[in-house]
Amino acid sequence: MAILAVSLSSPAVADLAIGTEWQRMEGGAVRLIRASTAEPDGTYKAGLEFKLEPGWHTYWRYPGEAGIPTEATFSGSTNLADAELLFPAPKRYSDGFSTSLVYKDRVVLPLVLQRESANRTAVVNMTVSFGVCQHICIPAEQQLSLVLPRTGAADPDADAIINSAFASLPARTTDEAGPFSKVEIVEGEAKPVLAIAAAVSAPQDAVDLFVEGPAGSYNGVPELVEMDQNTAHWHLPLTGFPRSQDGLDLTLTLVTPNGSVEHKTHIPLPDEVKKKS
C-alpha cells in the first residue's frame, strides 16, 4: 500500500464560534465542534467531525491489520484539566490483502472536555493525527483550536450533532461478563486461538466483533466461525498479542442491530502459550 505524508500545521481557530471552519484534506474535510453550553458539572461536550468523499475512509482508534490510528493531544490548551476522545464502533473493511477498522462518509468522534475552572474561558488546542485512504493511504495531522466560553447561547443544530454523536457510542458493560459467555484461549486447528462467544439475536451478517489488546498489540480482527442458535462464536489468532505477562487485558466491542457494547476483561495466559513467546 502506497503512503504519502501530509502535515497541515496552521491551526484552525474559532473564537466564540460553535465550531472551527472545515479544514480541507485529501479525501474530505475535518472540523472541531462543541455543544452550545456546558454540562451541569462544568464539562463541555464536543466532537471531531469528518466528512469523507465517496471511496475514502479513515480509521478507528485501533486500525486493525493495517492503517493509521486516530489519536489526539491537547498540549498548549488553556484552562483545560482533561480531554477524552471517544469512538463509535467502526466497520470492517477488506482491500483483499488485509482487514481494517474504518469510518466512511461522515463520522463525529465525541469529545469530553473538562475545564480547570468553570468561571474562566478555556481554549482547546487539539492536534489530531489520522489516516485517510482510498487507493493510497495518507497520514495527516491537523491542528484545531476552539474556545469554551463561560456561558453560551443555545444552538439547536450544534447540540443535535453532539447529542447524536454521544448516542452512537457503545454502551459500557457494568457486570463481569457482559454479553459474552466465553472469552478464553483454546486449542485451534494448528495453534491456540482466542475464542469468544456472545449472545446475539440477529443474522450473522448483522453482527461483528472487534478486539483490542494491551498497549503495543498488533493483533488481527476476529473471524466469525459459527452461529449456534442465538450465540455467535469468533476465533482470533494470538499473533500480535504480548505473551511476556500473566494475562491479557482486552477490550471487546460487540456490534449488533440493537447497538454496540464495549466490555473490558482480563484473561490468563496458559503456561504453554507463555512458553512460546
Description of the structure:
The chain has 277 residues and is mainly β. It has two domains: 6-169, Immunoglobulin-like; 172-275, Immunoglobulin-like (Sandwich). Helix content is 6%, strand content 52%. It has two helices and 20 strands. The chain has helices at residues 156-167, 271-275, and strands at 6-14, 23-25, 28-34, 44-52, 57-64, 71-73, 80-85, 91-94, 99-104, 106-115, 122-133, 137-148, 171-172, 180-187, 192-199, 208-212, 223-228, 231-237, 247-256, 259-268. Strands 1, 5, 6, 8, 9, 11 and 12 form a seven-stranded mixed sheet that branches. A five-stranded antiparallel sheet has the order 2-3-4-10-7, with helices on one face. A four-stranded mixed sheet has the order 13-20-19-16, with no helix packed on it. A hairpin with a 2-residue loop joins strand 2 (23-25) and strand 3. Mean pLDDT is 90; it is low at 1-10.
* Helix percentage range: under 10%
How many domains in all? 2
Q: What is the makeup of the main sheet? A: 7 strands, mixed
**Gyration radius, rounded:** 20 Å
Q: Looking at the structure, what is the overall shape?
A: globular
Domain Thiol:disulfide interchange protein DsbD N-terminal: 37-148
Pfam family, one: DsbD_N
InterPro entries: DsbDN (IPR028250)
Organism: Pseudovibrio exalbescens
Structural key phrases:
277 residues; Immunoglobulin-like; disordered N terminus; globular; five-stranded antiparallel beta sheet; mainly beta
Topology:
Blueprint lengths: L5 E9 L8 E3 L2 E7 L9 E9 L4 E8 L6 E3 L6 E6 L5 E4 L4 E6 L1 E10 L6 E12 L3 E12 L7 H12 L3 E2 L7 E8 L4 E8 L8 E5 L10 E6 L2 E7 L9 E10 L2 E10 L2 H5 L2
Parallel strand pairs: 1-12, 13-20
Antiparallel strand pairs: 2-3, 3-4, 4-10, 5-9, 5-11, 6-11, 7-10, 8-9, 11-12, 14-15, 15-18, 16-19, 17-18, 19-20
Protein name: Thiol:disulfide interchange protein DsbD N-terminal domain-containing protein
InterPro entries: DsbDN
Pfam families: DsbD_N (PF11412)
